UniProtKB/TrEMBL annotation:
Organism: Albidovulum sediminis
Lineage: Bacteria, Pseudomonadati, Pseudomonadota, Alphaproteobacteria, Rhodobacterales
InterPro entries per UniProt: Transgly_assoc
Signal peptide stretch: 1-18
Bilayer-crossing regions: 28-53, 60-78, 90-110
Keywords: Cell membrane, Membrane, Signal, Transmembrane, Transmembrane helix
Lipid bilayer topology: Multi-pass membrane protein
Protein name: GlsB/YeaQ/YmgE family stress response membrane protein
Record family assignment: Belongs to the UPF0410 family.
Record localization: Cell membrane
């Protein structure tokens, strides 16, 4: 099998590359796309949470982290407490927003102390 010349040809002809299946490449691309979506949605949720928690002045990075962290916190904590906000994307959105608001309130209280 001939790949041509250059660094790409060496990489494509290497035994390590031959072991990579299309499913693995697709899973990697899906993971990256999922992470980008999580960051974008986290940014929107964090921004909305910062509008609710006025005066936090957290900044964009903190808002994104609060949105993503709030989503993870809500998806873990609310089912443990037996609280459901409905099914589907709207319930997940409300839960993530509530988690992000909680994180920003805690950050605001810690900064005051």
């Amino acid at each position: 099998m001939r790949y041509g010349t250059g660094l790409l040809a060496v990489l494509l002809a290497s035994p390590a590359f031959a072991q990579v299946s299309p499913e693995t490449v697709g899973a990697g691309i899906g993971f990256v796309a999922g992470m980008i979506m999580a960051i974008l949605i986290g940014a929107v949720i964090g921004w909305l949470a910062s509008l609710i928690v006025k005066g936090s002045g957290s900044g964009l990075l903190t808002d994104i982290l609060a949105g993503v962290g709030g989503s993870m916190l809500a998806s873990y904590l609310l089912p443990k407490l037996g609280i459901t906000l409905g099914g589907g994307w709207f319930g997940a959105f409300l839960a993530a927003l509530a988690g992000a608001v909680l994180i920003l309130v805690v950050l605001k209280l810690v900064r005051r102390a």
